Structure formats: C-alpha cells, structure tokens
Amino acid sequence: MGTPTTAKHEARTGVSWLVLLASAVLEAVWATALGLSNGFTELIPTLVFAVTATLSMLGLGIAVKRIPLGTAYAVWVGIGAALTVGWAMVTGVEPASPLKLLFIAGIVGCAAGLKALPADQQADKAATSAE
Hints:
The chain is mainly α. The chain is built from 5 helices and no strands. The protein starts with a helix and ends with a helix. The relative contact order is 0.14.
C-alpha cells in the first residue's frame, strides 16, 4: 500500500469510483425518465429527469477530481447506456436478442477494463499535489 498519503489517495480514488458508478445509475434513471416524459409534458417523469440528471452530472463532476475525464466519461456513458437498454429490454419497451446482450456485455466489459487499468502516474501526481 505504501505511505499514509498514498493510502489516503487510494481511498479517495475508490470513493470517486463509487460516486461515478452511482452517477452512471442515475444517468440510466434520467434517460428512462426522459423517454417517459413525452417531450416534458408528463410532470412526474419530467421531475424525475430533472432531479436525477442534476445529481448524475454533479456526481460525474465530483468523480473527475480523482479519475481522468476521458476514463470517467467513458465509464459513465457506457454503464448508463447499458443499464438504460437493459431496463428497456426487461420492461418490454425494447426487444432483447442474444446479439444485443453480447454488445451490452461488451460495453460493461470495456468500462470494467478502464477501471482495471493501472492509474496514470501523471494523473496520480496531479491528484496528490492537489491534496
């Protein structure tokens, strides 16, 4: 693990990943609510959209303090898109197919791969110096 400063940085980065994943879930919620809002004419889905979109963007903004923007955005969009289409298939709004499930698994796998990559030393140095 290393020095106490390194452990502190790793803990903060771990929290940032949790915030990013929560934000991706909220992205799926706001995307689904957007579809249900019927062009912002249905009150409840419109309110759900507004609240969850705001929270999702705030979470993404918080996460990019510790996670490189490109990686965070790719994970946020990928997980959010996979959850959105997954929910649409589960609820019958969109048809499911083995090929579609394979591609969704690919999106999730790519997002997990980005998380699994070793952190860029330059990004680590920048985050450590910002502490």
